[in-house]
Specification:
heterodimer, A: Alpha-Beta Plaits, three-stranded antiparallel sheet, 8 strands, rod-shaped, B: Alpha-Beta Plaits, five-stranded antiparallel sheet
Chain lengths: ~220, ~240
């Protein structure tokens, strides 16, 4: 008897769940579009269409703004790159950055009767024949560099005493730079005939010239 | 017992069938128009959802771009200021300030009186030479001049001063006397050092007309090119 009551309960329980599930589905179906009145559906459609139209306008504007700002950002980056490049070029020229390149070295030994004028002449001659960067004993020549005698046998490049052998490095076309010094009646000939200075000039594929030790002066 | 189970099962199936058929009835009653509208509404639902998603995405991107743009604008401002500084170091800006103006001219008077003695007259002793200007510039730098121009030709690091015949070239620009050399810097200090230097005393001793004026100077910017076809950026050497 107990057994039959349990079975009966289970059957009714299953039946109840079955019915309630069906009923729920039915409720959803009634709420769903299929059970709406056609006029209500059209109203709903129109409302939604209006919203979608508004959204479309917004999205068009946003797309426009995005492409504008993308263009502006790209241009901004380009301008940053260009400015950085321009700064780098100027720093290579004014000595704030070290530079490499082909060129020549001029070596003057300590026994040469070298005067500070001779070095001023040499540097001037190197600039005149196309040097793009010059250093005396790795002391970078800038717009403010001066070469001064200190005592009868001491030369100073800015505040640095010149030591021998003195090596002047110049970056530029090696052949032109060499010819600019060694042509007949040129600086090297004058040095050897008039002063007994015999520099050794060597063209080189690659010369490294360091940056200035003190940066240039900004002027207003 | 079995009977009850069977009856209940059948009852359940009947009930469910009943509901299903009700729905089927409703479906069949909806017209084709009805179905079309539903389809359009569902399509709209998808579209609205997609559009809203896109709007959200773009707004996020825009605020990111805005941030990047603001950062870039800041970076650019900084770089442009730095570029200006670099241009000024490279003599690419006009400078105005206290300084000294030296005017050198050929010794025309001396030459006129000396030329009567034809045998000993050396005209080169009465003209301003490129070397004089070159060494004077070196002295000016040693005396603390911050910017120099010769006949308004601004000197840069790579400026050369030489001559072709009696014409002096500065930055390969030919110029004739008088040579007006303007230098920015402490006027009194520069003047004092020049008077103790080599070039000015030499010229004065030989009666060249030398004029030294102290006061505000305006030194124009360099207008030429810089050569850098052989230059590459090198490695920083750490000492």
């Amino acid at each position: 008897m107990n057994k039959s009551i349990i079975s009966f309960t289970i059957v009714l329980l299953v039946l109840g769940i079955f019915i309630s599930m069906q009923f729920k589905t039915q409720q959803q179906l009634i709420n769903s579009l299929a059970y709406q009145d056609a006029r209500d559906l059209i109203t709903l459609y129109n409302t939604m269409k209006e919203k979608q139209d508004d959204l479309s306008i917004t999205v068009q504007e946003l797309r426009q703004r995005k492409s504008t700002i993308e263009y502006e950002t790209a241009r901004g980056i380009e301008r940053i790159d260009n400015t950085e490049q321009e700064i780098e070029q100027l720093q290579m020229l004014n000595g704030e950055l070290p530079v490499n390149g082909p060129g020549i070295t001029v070596t003057i030994t300590g026994d040469a009767p070298l005067l500070h004028y001779d070095l001023v002449d040499l540097v001037n001659e190197l600039w005149a024949t196309g040097a793009e960067a010059i250093a005396i004993n790795d002391h970078r020549i800038t717009v403010n560099t001066y070469i001064q005698p200190y005592s009868s046998d001491e030369i100073f490049v800015n505040d640095e005493k010149l030591l021998f052998p003195c090596i002047i490095k110049a970056i530029g076309d090696p052949h032109t730079l060499e010819k600019g010094l060694t042509f007949t009646g040129g600086l090297v000939e004058n040095w050897s005939i008039l002063y007994g200075i015999y520099p050794s000039i060597t063209p080189r594929d690659n010369i490294a010239i360091p940056a200035v030790k003190n940066r240039g002066v900004a002027l207003e | 017992m079995f009977n009850i189970t069977i009856v209940c099962t059948i009852l359940g199936l009947l009930l469910s069938w009943q509901y299903k058929s009700t729905r089927a009835e409703a479906d069949s009653s909806s017209s084709i128009l009805h179905e079309n509208i539903i389809e359009m509404i569902q399509q709209l639902e998808t579209d609205i959802h997609d559009t809203e998603e896109e709007i959200g995405t773009i707004r996020n991107q825009l605020s990111q771009y805005q941030e990047v743009e603001d950062q870039d604008a800041g970076t650019l401002k900084f770089l442009q200021d730095y570029l200006h500084l670099q241009r000024s170091i490279n003599s690419l800006t006009t400078v105005v300030g206290p300084g000294i103006t030296i005017t050198l001219d050929d010794n025309v008077q001396g030459a006129a009186s000396a030329s009567t003695d034809f045998a000993s007259f050396r005209p080169e002793d009465y003209i301003i030479h490129d070397k004089t200007v070159l060494y004077l510039v070196n002295e000016l730098k040693a005396a603390g001049a911050k910017a120099i121009a010769i006949n308004n030709q601004r000197l840069v690091s790579s400026s050369d001063i030489r001559c072709v015949g009696t014409v002096i070239l500065v930055n390969t620009t030919p110029m004739a006397p008088p040579y007006q050399i303007k230098a920015l810097g402490d006027p009194e200090e520069i003047k004092e050092k020049l008077l103790l230097g080599d070039e000015i005393p030499y010229l004065k001793a030989r009666n060249f007309p030398v004029k030294i004026e102290v006061g505000e100077v305006e030194i124009p910017e360099y207008k030429g090119n810089f050569r850098q076809s052989h230059l590459e950026r090198g490695e920083q050497i750490h000492e």
